[in-house]
Amino acid sequence: MAETLLRLRVDTASGAPVLSLTDFLASDNAAAVRIEPGEDARALLPHLSRIALVEVSFPAYGDGRGYSSARILREHGYKGELRATGDVLLDQLSHMKRCGFDGFAPAKPIAAEAAQQAFATWPDVYQKTVDGRSPIWAKRHGL
Amino acid sequence: MYQYDEYDQAMVDARVEEFRGQVARRMAGEITEDQFKPLRLKNGLYLQLHAYMLRVAIPYGTLNGRQMRLLGDIADKYDRGYGHFTTRQNIQYNWIKLEDAPQILADLATVEMHAIQTSGNCIRNISSDHFAGAAADELVDPRPYAELLRQWSSFHPEFDYLPRKFKIAVIASDTDRAAMRLHDIGIQIVKNDAGEIGARFYVGGGMGRTPMIAPVIRDFVPALQMVSYAEACLRVYNRYGRRDNKYKARIKILVHEIGADEYRRQVEEEFAHILTLGLEPPQAEFERIAAFFADPGLESGLADGYDRSDPDFAVWADQNTAPHKQAGYKAVVISLKPAGGIPGDASADQIRLMAELAEAYSLDELRVTHTQNIVLPHVKQSDLYALWQKLDAAGLATANLDLIGDIIACPGLDYCSLANARSIPLAQKISARFASPERQRTLGELKLKISGCINACGHHHAGHIGILGVDKKGTENYQLLFGGSEAADTSLAQIVGPGFNEDGIVDAIETATEVYLKARAEGERFIDTYRRIGAAPFKEAIYG
Amino acid sequence: MKILTGNDLASGDVVWWDGKGWSRDVNDAVDAGDSADAILAAEEAAQRVNAGYAIAATKTAEGVRPAHIKDRIRALGPTVRLDLSLRPGDPDAASRVI
Fold first, then answer.
1. Is B408-543 in the same CATH topology as B134-285?
2. Going by beta carbons, is chain B in contact with chain A, meaning 3 or more pairs sit under 8 Å apart?
3. Residue pLDDT, tens place only, B121-138
4. Nearest alpha-carbon partner for B231 in B185, B293, B180
């Protein structure tokens, strides 16, 4: 469903086949992998340098495990595309971006303009995460 | 108390605009109720039995006169002239229109208030000791720590879709006035052997259908690392808390199933990693926050003691005031539990009067208690009599703090769509049966708590006497529990025997008080006698 | 009989299907019979009702009586605040819903 893909990256999206975590771990050179909510993102840490795309699956928007998976990958230096797929809704986009997602493949398309507005929901942020934004506490003290 | 700067204000304003847009999309049919529900819940808006209900946060229970007055004005302008103070330091309005909700949030934002995360599977309003900043027995004021956590937890991007709701309480004295160990995370601010201030983390407590008392997960976290430790606790929960069964999704079940030691191991591992990321606000930020709480304007050099010649006043002053850390002051509790009344309800006029009295007599501060009462924390003892006269004239001077008439009751089936039985009529009948002030004082401290369903919003597990309403083949039935406590001696109440109808349970409670009066030893409260002699004599008297 | 209830989307008011639209008075409720699901689906899609559902009820001399106490309280209002209920002048209203 490439036509519904929203990307915040300038590079070209990876065309590599996306493997399940089990298949990925069994392969030596796969470059794209999908992790499900119950799977441990840390299993990917030894392989980050060869991964161009991690799809994090959201079978239901209310299952928030993917937010932790994303943040863990970014915190350990993953630089490739991190794509939220499935039940990805407009009102979740800004939090997803804050957790390190830079690709979105919603099951129901989201207009690019609405998405841009959603990403701009918060003028500032209270927490330091992995999106590079300076938290309010840092701004208050000139850090 | 804390004041917003331009950042805090901009965040709350942004939330109002976000919700305004979400409501407009819902009204226009662009999103379904299923999609809208979690969005409105994160703004405290429920669809209840009769209408929408709005739950407004009162962070760590502290507010000023201007904020309190607005709460009264909202009751008049958008609701039906009253509000309900809850067991989690929130206020609820029962008759809200969806189309008004964004404007109510905008009104609240003008006085630095909000309904952010007062529902939904996210980190809820941070609660605290209602005597914080006034209590004679506190180590430090816990509220700066609670405010630090409020900011950290507001719109936290990773923890907005947790397995289930998440409640945090922060206290800083050995006397627990916040049911701290019955929270998902309970934090006690403590001093270590080196004299440093830090946080003791209790994780995995809660009430609901599986009540549990939280174990200590870490004895001491340096104060500034509190945010990182909480982050670690939440991340382990977000990843491994159960999502297959709503009734087993709270963190208490995770901690119970894997054990406190294994949970601790996982948290410590995550904590070690998180510490490398530099997520904590600096000392300067803590000091900025703490400065707001440092001095509410207390006078020094006042003497303790006041004129007690009016006997009605003296009774109230003895029952409804607490020691203050500053000589010449008392913390005053305004009971919202008149005999035969609705626990926790206050009219718009009463709310505005309490605002005015806070400005006149309590350095412009009020607190909301988890027992559904209001506190004026800083009252000069020389002002007590004048204050009492004004409260008495407004029907707000019921002298029953911690007595059997000071009942906690959830809204129950009169308002709540989850309830199985009504709670309020029972509270009214019990407080009417025990209306005599002398009789209540003879019985002494007796904490009676009523929930209209197993979700336990009325804290029935933690009552010296607890009542749980159930649905028995389409009629209301009430189970009786004894032996709970949510104070420092936290314990869980146990069911005594078969349930009763409404009148039956009032009789059974009366019988239990008679057993206590006969059996009590010198100085024993109901709970002490119950713990000493056990359930048998009570069962015998009640069931024969 | 099977009757339909829900809330008005904008106001949140409790409403009952009266055969043509949604009434605030439970006594206007009509038997939806086998059409219950179809009516609810159409009405929700048109945003004329929110969070609708079907319940069992009986028709008595006094009016329509939902089978479950929860819906009888919904039909009346809080039993502890009859002044805010749909029967403010009827002191026995609470005892009749129990």
1. yes
2. yes
3. 999 999 999 999 999 999
4. B185
